[in-house]
Amino acid sequence: xxxxxxxxxxxxxxxxxxxxxxxxxxxxxxxxxxxxxxxxxxxxxxxxxxxxxxxxxxxxxxxxxxxxxxxxxxxxxxxxxxxxxxxxxxxxxxxxxxxxxxxxxxxxxxxxxxxxxxxxxxxxxxxxxxxxxxxxxxxxxxxxxxxx
Length: 148
Fold this sequence. Notes:
The protein is of the alpha+beta class and 148 residues long. Helices cover 27% and strands 31% of the residues. It is globular.
């Protein structure tokens, strides 16, 4: 948890956001990591459309309208750690306690499932695209200060 005496007045304490961002130490499919080998791993970043070695920063933050979210807690992991697992390990109890007192929903864009039959993918395509679009419209990335 971040120990901070300043919390902006515009924080929405009823809306916690979770996001992650890569910290790239070395990029390229055929490159070899030479820095901090003990704590980094290889991963694919779909946003950057590239393989990289590095870390991921994960943040639990309070929503702020039209501004970068205010971090409540930050953790760092190897790049190949799965976001949902890190979320559950670090903030599962925090969110579970809030769930008892508030109506909380966790919205995650739909990701492709490896090995899923093509017919099943096509059957769910419209729903998955619409749902993921809705999630991205309310999402606030932790690394971007130009949020509209």
